């Protein structure tokens, strides 16, 4: 759970080798940028929470490898 940690940028290396992660909670931060490829290793994530951030743009391939994403 990374909620409320004043994170502003998600770098493409932040979640490397986390293929078994099922839930990623990033709500209530200051995220304004998510780099292309940042979620490429998150193949098992079923739920991703990004609400209450400052995101203006999402790379078009950001969720490509997240085949189990439900919410």
Automatic annotation (TrEMBL):
Keywords: Leucine-rich repeat, Repeat, Signal
Family matches, as Pfam families: LRR_8
SMART domains: LRR_TYP (SM00369)
Superkingdom as given in the UniProt entry: Eukaryota
Protein's UniProt keywords contain NADP: no
Entry keyword annotation includes Lyase: no
Any one GO cellular component localisation term in the record: plasma membrane
The protein, known as: LRRNT domain-containing protein
């Amino acid at each position: 759970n990374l909620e409320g940690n004043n994170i502003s940028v998600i770098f493409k290396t932040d979640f490397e080798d986390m293929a078994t992660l099922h839930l990623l909670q990033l709500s209530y931060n200051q995220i304004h940028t998510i780099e292309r490829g940042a979620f490429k290793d998150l193949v098992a994530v079923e739920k991703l929470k990004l609400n209450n951030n400052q995101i203006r743009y999402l790379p078009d391939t950001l969720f490509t490898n997240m085949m189990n994403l439900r919410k």
